[in-house]
Design brief:
It is built from five helices and no strands. It is mainly α. Helix 3 crosses helix 5 and helix 4 (about 60-75) packs antiparallel against helix 5.
Length: about 90
């Protein structure tokens, strides 16, 4: 009987953990409205300065900014939309 209650408790804990993980992953996948409303220059200044000095937009060619953007999307955990906004800002500010 004691073993059965332990299994029941463990099952309940696993269900709760699975629910928390599911809710967190669903909410974590959708960018917040505040982030979605930000411009490329805002995202550039907030994200790029976390780890290093921000380079001038004229530092790289538009093609090079595309490559840098792809690399930094992975390194800085940027969303696709954030990367696109930042790269477009950098390319247009040359």
């Amino acid at each position: 009987m004691k073993k059965y209650k332990t299994i029941q408790r463990l099952s309940a804990v696993l269900i709760i953990v699975a629910a928390v993980i599911t809710i967190t992953s669903i909410n974590g996948c959708a960018p917040s409205k505040a982030v979605a409303a930000k411009t490329g220059v805002q995202l550039w200044s907030e994200n790029c300065q976390r780890c290093h000095n921000t380079p001038s937009p004229s530092t790289f060619s538009p093609e090079m900014w595309e490559t840098v953007g792809m690399h930094m999307q992975t390194r800085a955990l940027l969303t696709e939309d954030e990367r696109k906004k930042i790269v477009e800002f950098l390319k247009s500010s040359r």
